[in-house]
């Protein structure tokens, strides 16, 4: 298996779609259904990249990303954020957790794959 990607989203359909698409391209995929689980898996699994929804119950993607960035072990893992409200979240994400990539939902799978490869150097 290739590089490891953590997918964090409360929408099971998106998780399954991404898992299928990414494994078909040789990536090892780990999944989490919410931000809290995503942070725990990021610390335990040390993925090469994280794809995270912003709007999730309990711990949202912005808060989860902040926790990931505050941990010395996980702070440099690249993040791609997926959100249904892209324009609304662009500046909020950049001001709180850095200039990672924000993509709107629905997303173009080929564009996402291209951004993943660019971020992890494939």
Structure, described:
Strands 2-1-3-4-5 form a five-stranded parallel β-sheet, sandwiched between helices. The protein has a single domain (4-120), classed as Response regulator (Rossmann fold), CATH 3.40.50. The protein is built from five helices and five strands. It has helices at 12-24, 35-45, 61-70, 86-97, 109-120; strands at 4-8, 28-32, 49-53, 79-83, 101-104. The protein is 48% helix and 20% strand. With 122 residues, it is of the alpha/beta class. The model has no long low-confidence stretch (mean pLDDT 86).
What is the approximate shape?
globular
Report the C-alpha radius of gyration, rounded: 13 Å
- Summed up, the domain count is 1
CATH homologous superfamily descriptor: Response regulator
How many helices in DSSP terms?
Answer: 5
- Chain-averaged pLDDT: 86
Summarize the main sheet: 5 strands, parallel
Features:
single chain; 122 residues; alpha/beta; Rossmann fold; 48% helix; globular
Secondary structure blueprint with pairings:
Elements (H helix, E strand, L loop, with lengths): L3 E5 L3 H13 L3 E5 L2 H11 L3 E5 L7 H10 L8 E5 L2 H12 L3 E4 L4 H12 L2
Parallel strand pairs: 1-2, 1-3, 3-4, 4-5
Helix pairs in contact: 2-3
Gist of the model:
The chain contains five helices and five strands. The protein has helices at 12-24, 35-45, 61-70, 86-97, 109-120, and strands at residues 4-8, 28-32, 49-53, 79-83, 101-104.
